[in-house]
Amino acid sequence: MELGAIPVGHGSAQLLTVLARAINAKAVVEVGTGAGVSGLAMTRGMAPDGVLTSIDLETMNQSAAREAFLAAGLSNRQFRLIAGAATDILPNLRDAAYDMVFVDADKLEYVEYVAQAQRLLRVGGLLVVDNALWHNKVADETNEDDETVIIREALEVIREDDGLIASLLPVSDGLLVAVKTDTQ
Ligand SMILES: C[S@@+](CC[C@H](N)C(=O)[O-])C[C@H]1O[C@@H](n2cnc3c(N)ncnc32)[C@H](O)[C@@H]1O
Membrane spanning segments where (predicted)? Predict the structure, then answer.
């Protein structure tokens, strides 16, 4: 079954489309391109003149994403794929210039990604963090896996930031959505 062109069942992808559409996003940063599923979902909700900037370590993944984007009818002007380590690339992006930042790369770097997102987002922009439940390990206090501990820390940073209003959506593996406010 299909809803628009997005397969039902990929709940977080549908939600990404809805979120991007709700804020009429023109500038989105994606941390972790993968094969382009989430990127494509966001571009579906973005303004027609919007640009998705997507970062991934693996050029092979980005080639697959490029193919998927073009096959879906996107033009080269609607996306910018940057190959490299997110922690090297994110600091080069402009402060307060983005409407939405979607975090979905190395879980061990989530705290750094969140710090960069706080800087990159304009007021009213959305920080969206995938795998916020991390296979239900985040809520299990006895679990101290490195990735689980770091995701917990990243969520704590978001919760304690007075400039972010956050909500955890139990979709798929958990999607944390936070709005940047003008409170510092
Ligand atoms: C879960 S996949 C992303 C999936 C994609 N967001 C989607 O839903 O279609 C994670 C991606 O992060 C990339 N990645 C892992 N560590 C990274 C890093 N340090 N910097 C940038 N990308 C990284 C991987 O190569 C992989 O493609």
Answer: none
Structural domain that includes position 158: 2-180
- pTM: predicted TM-score of the whole model, two decimal places: 0.95
Asked if the interface predicted TM-score (ipTM) of this complex is over 0.90, the answer is: yes
Buried b vs exposed e over 139-152: b needs ≥16 C-beta within 10 Å?
eeeeeeeebbebbb
Is residue 101 very low, low, confident or very high in pLDDT (cuts 50, 70, 90)? very high
Q: Which CATH number fits the domain that encloses residue 21? A: 3.40.50.150
CB under 6 Å to ligand 1: residues?
A: 32-38, 55-58, 61, 85-86, 104-106, 109
Residues 73, 33: contact at Cβ < 8 Å? no
Ligand 1 atom index nearest CA of 105: 12
Question: Is 10 a residue whose pLDDT tops 90?
Answer: no
Separation of CA 130 and ligand 1 centre (Å): 11
* Number of domains, the chain: 1
CB 47 within 8 A of CB 76: no
